[in-house]
Specification:
Shape of chain B: flat
Shape of chain A: globular
CATH class of the largest domain in chain A: Alpha Beta
Helix content of chain A: 25-40%
Number of strands of chain A: 11
Number of domains of chain B: 2
CATH topology of the largest domain in chain A: Rossmann fold
CATH superfamily of the largest domain in chain A: P-loop containing nucleotide triphosphate hydrolases
Largest sheet of chain B: none
Distance between the termini of chain B: 20 Å
Radius of gyration of chain B: 24 Å
Order of helices and strands of chain A: EEEEHEEEHHHEHEHEEH
CATH architecture of the largest domain in chain A: 3-Layer(aba) Sandwich
Strand content of chain B: under 5%
Strand content of chain A: 15-25%
Oligomer: heterodimer
Number of strands of chain B: 0
CATH topology of the largest domain in chain B: MetI-like fold
Structural class of chain A: alpha/beta
Chain lengths: 290, 274
């Protein structure tokens, strides 16, 4: 693989919005310690779309929780514009895998929530909410409850609920999982368009390599247990992105390279999962490298 | 609203009405009615054929006669009023005290650790087992009845609310925190509405328990009420009136559950089927 594809962590970085610096996070009791992340470091450059990838169990969700401020690192630090993250805040908003819309609020109520708890005036809330609802194409559905919406609409409501607060960082944790293929593509296109218009710094977590390369400026690949940065790829496909790029030569190069790295880590994850099964069979040797 | 929208709305209403009529005339209703008719016919047959153990039952016609005689009396409706008032007051107090207590134990780990053990010891005692103590403890019989009718739904509601709060998805709380919600917002906008379905479940179960305890308490203590009426019919050996009393209690319980359900649905528009 050419050196042009892979750029090391040490390479010069543009101005960073978020610094994840030597973060270690463990779970469990003294006796049964699970090291989830170990000395994990990377940055999220301002105005770029960073995609985080790695096998299941590599600590992606933990990383998100740390950046969002739901949890604190055991060692190391997470800093937003130089200041350590101490708790959740509306400058870093997360759109989760599962919908976290408040079921008892209408679309409007959900979208306006962030403004309401900041005690903005009714008129200001209405103006902002209606503008953003129109932007995500849900103005006509503002009085519906989340349960009355399709999956794609729910995701757009969630995006609107976050965007209304003008966050510095959007964190999308597998936001399009569970959507059908068509809706998923539309949502990818929708978010890309939004991102390319606003250059809103984004951290995007996904399992889909195609999606990752299609969306990303930078692709951060994590290792399996403990989670560390394996490699950071610069995705130099031109913007605005278009679905036709899936067929481009550069896309294939990036895809091949990232895939080989991911397969390596996924194999480790798979083998680790098998170890206990192999232990059950007398005489069978557990797979190497687990 | 445009004219087409109006038309749509009107035709929607017409559809609903015709659906309602069809519902009344449907096969399902027919089945229900025929089962009811068969039940009365079997009852009539059992009494007239002197089936062992059932021959002491009055004829359906006697019960009907007793019913028509009773409903015109003032005493019958006073029984209704008194029982309903007892239910209403006790149930309300149970909610007013039980919901905050349940919320407190659901939200604060510490208060749960302190309060729950006592709760767990007292809770398994069936409400009816409180009757002797309640009668001795409270100065008037009326207060004893209120207290007993309160105890039944109280424990049910506290447990349900506590469980309901505990079951609120942590990601909803996180999302709210991220969006800048303060503790007060979390309580009023997340915890309370999130626990509402459980509160309603607690109320639905609680109202049934309340009627159970009330009837038992009235039979032993009170002077009026539907339970008392039924018990007096027993002491007078008036079997048709016993059955009228039982049916009345059944209808009263059904109506109360209906009210709770309607209140619940109007509190939770997001759960309504559209």
């Amino acid at each position: 693989m050419s050196a042009a594809v892979a750029t090391g962590i040490a390479a010069a970085q543009p101005a960073r919005l978020v610094d994840v610096d030597g973060v270690t996070k463990c779970f469990g009791t003294e006796d049964d310690r699970q090291i989830c992340l170990e000395s994990c470091s990377f940055g999220i450059p301002r105005g770029k779309l960073t995609v985080l990838m790695g096998p299941s169990g590599c600590g992606k969700t933990t990383l998100i929780n740390l950046i969002a401020g739901y949890e604190l690192p055991d060692r190391g630090s997470v800093r937003l514009e130089g200041a350590p993250v101490a708790g959740p805040g509306s400058d870093r908003l997360v759109v989760f895998q599962e919908t976290t819309l408040f079921p008892w609020m209408t679309v409007y109520g959900n979208v306006a929530f962030g403004c309401k708890v900041k005690r903005l005036s009714q008129a200001a809330i209405r103006e902002k909410a209606e503008r953003i609802l129109a932007k995500v194409g849900l103005y006509a559905f503002r009085d519906k409850y989340p349960s009355q919406l399709s999956g794609g609409m729910q995701r757009r409501t969630e995006l609107a609920r976050a965007l209304i607060n003008d966050p510095k960082l959007m964190i999308l944790d597998e936001p399009f999982r569970g959507l059908d293929a068509m809706t998923r593509e539309l949502m990818q296109e929708f978010y890309l368009k939004l991102f390319e218009e606003t250059c809103l710094t984004t951290l995007f977590v996904t399992h889909e390599l195609e999606e990752a390369i299609f969306m990303a400026d930078r692709l951060v690949l994590l290792t399996y247990k403990p989670g560390q940065v394996k490699e950071i790829l610069d995705v130099d496909l031109p913007r605005p992105r278009h679905f036709s790029m899936f067929a481009s030569k550069r896309f294939f190069e990036l895809h091949d390279h990232a895939m080989s790295l991911l397969v390596e880590e996924s194999k480790k994850a798979f083998a680790a999962g098998c170890t206990s099964a192999f232990d059950q069979i007398a005489g069978a040797r557990p797979p190497a490298g687990g | 609203m445009s004219s087409t929208a109006l038309e749509l709305k009107r035709s929607g209403r017409a559809l609903r009405i015709s659906a309602y009529v069809r519902g009344i005339l449907s096969l399902k209703t027919l089945q229900g009615v025929s089962t009811l008719v068969a039940f009365v016919a079997l009852w009539q047959a059992a009494v007239s054929l002197k089936v062992p153990y059932l021959s002491n039952l009055p004829y359906p016609a006697d019960v009907w006669k007793s019913f028509t005689d009773t409903v015109v009396t003032r005493a019958y409706w006073i029984s209704w009023a008194v029982s309903l008032e007892r239910i209403f007051v006790s149930f309300l107090v149970a909610q007013v005290l039980g919901i905050p207590l349940g919320l407190l134990m659901g939200i604060s780990r510490k208060s749960k650790d302190i309060l729950f053990p006592v709760f767990e010891i007292v809770r398994p005692i069936p409400p009816i087992a409180w009757i002797p103590l309640a009668i001795l403890f409270w100065p008037t019989e009326e207060l004893s009845i209120y207290a007993l009718t309160f105890i039944g739904p109280f424990f049910v509601i506290v447990l349900n609310v506590m469980q309901g709060v505990a079951n609120i998805d942590v990601s909803l709380k996180r999302a709210a925190l991220s969006l800048g919600a303060k503790p007060g917002d979390i309580f009023w906008k997340i915890m309370l509405p999130g626990a509402l379905p459980s509160i309603l479940t607690g109320m639905t179960v609680g109202i049934g328990v309340a009627w159970n305890v009330l009837i038992a308490a009235e039979m032993i203590a009170g002077h009026v009420g539907l339970g008392r009426m039924t018990w007096e019919a027993y002491t007078n050996g008036n079997i048709p009136l016993i059955m009228v009393g039982m049916a009345s209690i059944g209808v009263a319980g059904y109506l109360c559950s209906g009210v709770v359900r309607i209140v619940g649905q109007s509190c939770m528009p997001w759960r309504r089927r559209s």
